[in-house]
Amino acid sequence: MMAESGSSEVAVIGNVDLTSTELENNIINTVMVERGTALLRRMEINVAEAEKRTGKNTVNMQETYTVYLIETRPAETIAEGGTPAAPDTLWRRYSEFELFRNYLLVTYPHIIIPPLPEKRAEFVWHKLSADNLDPDFVERRRVGLENFLLRVASHPVLSDDEMFLRFLTDEKRWKEAVLETGFQDKVDSRLKSLSAMFRVKNPDKQFTALKHYSDDLNTIISQLLRVRAKVADRLYGVYKVHGNYGRVFSEWSAIEKEMGDGLQSAGHHMDTYAASIDDILEEEEHYADQLKEYLFYTDAVRSVCRKQDLIQYELEMAVQDLSTKKQQKEELTSGTVRIFSLKGMTTKLFGQESQEQRESKLEALDLSIHEGEEAVNEKNRECKEFLQTAWGDIERFREQKDNDLREALISYAIMQISMCKKGIQVWSNAKECFNKM
Amino acid sequence: MSGQTVPVDYSGHMLDLDEDEDLEVFSKAPVADGNPMPNSPSSMVNQFRLEEDEPQDVNAKDLFITVDNPESHITAIETFIMYRVLTKTTRSEFDSSEYEVHRRYQDFLWLRSRLEETHPTLIVHPLPEKFVMKGMVERFNDDFIHTRRKALHRFLNKISEHPILSYNQHFKVFLTAEELTSHRKQGPGFLSRMGETVRAVANTVRGLKSRPEEFAAMQEYVDDFSNKICTVDKVTQRIIKEEREYLDELKQYGPMYGQWAESEGNLAEPLKAVASCVERCGKETEEHAHHLSEVLVPTLHEYILCAETLKAVMRRRDHIQAEFEAKNEALASRKSEQEALQEEVDGLSDRMEGSNEALKGDWFRWKAGMRTDLKSAFVSSAEKNVDYYEKCLAVWESFLLSQRAESSDQQDGEDVS
């Protein structure tokens, strides 16, 4: 399905056989392709299948896990009406995706890294299983992983990453290569701890606003997903109870002569009605998944904000450090002790230093100040660069989010319409049967 | 005995038709209606007559009754509700063409018990129950009064449509007398009913020799029907409950989109639109649940009570047969008083025949009415469901339209939206 979208967007959009979710996915992917990264122009990416495997894990215990088939194909080889060339394929499990994403997070701290589909099923309504091996969950995860890969592939910066290409094409040696980059050492422990607060004196206003927005979005989408699950639960109940009509009408029709046929056939339609909710709610899960993607995106946004905080903090520390050193130099040259120091105290108690001592101290301090100035410049530069690149990505993200979520709402409306049409059909049929009673 | 005269009249009425050869020719092919009664000429003719008469009844309806205006009456001893009963009629038995009286629930109870006493094997439409204990509904709660009033109205209309009951003397008194209390004291009342009940119990204990096949089948049907209709009622109540819970969640769900819109820029408009759509669908859901409560539930409830009425009618018929059989046995075993006994036995035999015929005739009538009423209620509910989905469909389609209009505006300016 994804393969087609690259070559003939118009045909895809016009295809009325697609479900609303497939349509929605295709629209997103079409947008991505039209935006056109170099990678996507030459390659098509699918996560085509999922399979169960068993094997020994790190503690030598048997475990069952799922692997996903990544297919890649050169983009140009699809001729109109011709059969597509066989794709290159490899299998990856969820933990490998996680490793890859962590690499991206560390390597591109100024980029909002696309999220992975959820590790465990959350916001489930009662009928849905929270089991990772449940086929419906696996299917939705497959779609989510494909979506992740396409998001990375369509990102102007991320798509050029070498590890990404290897992730897609080098089954065995990718893991070794990514660990060799040493990205795990670069992880700042301060960033890891979510509760670590470093007090920034002059927080950037735009980033502060962004952080608040991201928190708000996280809260509201969580609440929305929770209530949506409850609504789904209730709607399930309404539909399923109608199944009881089916049964009792059938039994009742057995004791009636004239009314029997009408009752019996009406009962069948009640059964149909009751059964229809399963597909309806399964489709709605795709909508929930689209919301979840942006829920998880808020974590990525928050990461970028925290990184900016950290850089700002480091800059302020460097500036303060420099200021302290300059002050020390001033004291040394003027002889006054304005800043309390042990040195100063001992000097007072044990007598003044010699001229040579003072001069060597001054030299060391000058060097230190010079280093400090360079550090401040460096941090300043880092800060500016971060602000610029991050803000560029944030703008890109904002536009993407507005478009994607609007499309998600549209697809939600399409789902509701489809549900209503089914309802009209079933109840019109039932009414006809009742009329024949 | 009070029960004697009318059944004899009724069966006499039928015997008349029976002798009319022409009607037999026109009678329809045996229409199976779930009642496996032998297609005797009289029953076929009855079917024909009733089915033909039904539409004509509507056109020839000459008795129109409404029950409305519930008013609270407070006395030193009690509080109760009075209902206004308006009657319009062209029947010659009535002195006037319009009557307005006020009746309380007790008066309706009185009327129904007199009708049942007078015609023990006719199917007298049930009254709404005394008061609802489940759900702790207060007696004078508005919903309760509304439901009761509608049921009382149905009751009187059902009686007015009955070819025999509508000509009953007590019915006329009920509709016309200013003061009912004086009339209520006349006639066999509580004590005789007591006596009958005791005898009825005694007879059922002794058991019936054998129930005629058609009535055995009727009994079986009544039991099954009672079962099924109770189940349908339960299912319907459950659906209403689930719908109301669904609605509660929707009321939380919709506003969240509105809340979200507050922190958004471009997304605010579609989010607010979705919030509005969910709200409107919620309103439709509320209306739907209301319709079920107003239309389907009362009808189902009525027929649950009808099933109980049918069971009582069958018991009374059985009792009449038992009384005859008892006397008949006595006649066979006793050597003295043969003549007097014979007369009694003949009387009881006639009474039994009459009761059986009355029930058979009314049975067809009842089944036809049941079919009409339930069909109408189910059709109406199905229609309401279609209506509900059509309205929701329109809500979401208008949202889609608004979004597509937006995107085409955007597309003019940008590459892709």
Automatic annotation (TrEMBL), chain A:
Protein origin, superkingdom: Eukaryota
Keyword field contains Protein transport: yes
InterPro entries to which the protein is assigned, alphabetical: AH/BAR_dom_sf, PX_dom, PX_dom_sf, PX_SNX4, SNX4, SNX4_BAR
Keywords: Protein transport, Transport
Classification via Gene3D superfamilies: Arfaptin homology (AH) domain/BAR domain (1.20.1270.60), Phox-like domain (3.30.1520.10)
GO annotation (BP), single: positive regulation of autophagosome assembly
Similarity comment text for this entry: Belongs to the sorting nexin family.
Name of the protein in question: Putative sorting nexin-4
Native species: Scophthalmus maximus (Turbot)
